[in-house]
Each structure stands twice: as C-alpha cells, then as structure tokens.
Structure prediction request, 75 residues.
Amino acid sequence: MPASLRHSRTKPANAGQVQWRLDLAADRLRTTDQPVESIAAAVGYHSAPAFSRAFTRSHGAPPGRYRTMHRPSRA
Prediction:
C-alpha cells in the first residue's frame, strides 16, 4: 500500500470537523458563562460525558478545568 494511502487511513475522514467543533467549544468555554452541557449541545454532542471525553483528549483537560485555566481573571 502506498505511504500516502496508509497516512490517510490514520485519522477518520471527519477528524478535521470534530477538531473544529472542539476548538469552537474551547472558545465558548473561555469567553462565555454558558453551561458545559449547553456548549456540548451547541457543537453537536448529544451526550455531555461523550463531549467531555473528546474535549479532554483534544485539549488535555476536562471542559470545566479548561475554563478555569483559560479564563481571564475577574477583578
């Protein structure tokens, strides 16, 4: 099998779209007070636990902790 075909099979075809949705969620976590469950639904997840697992794999922290770590300090 050619190397180009092997490489294309290492990620699902929709991996870019999934990452885009998770990046959108990360932006909302940083910039809004929306509940995590609402953000999960807004980016296409029907299950908050499934969203949390995918988000943690992608961004290295669960959504709630990511929000705490990346929000500007409120004085």
User: Anything to note?
Assistant: The radius of gyration is 15 Å. The mean pLDDT is 87. Helices lie at 3-8, 15-31, 36-42, 48-59, 63-70. Residues 24 and 43 are 7 Å apart (CA to CA).
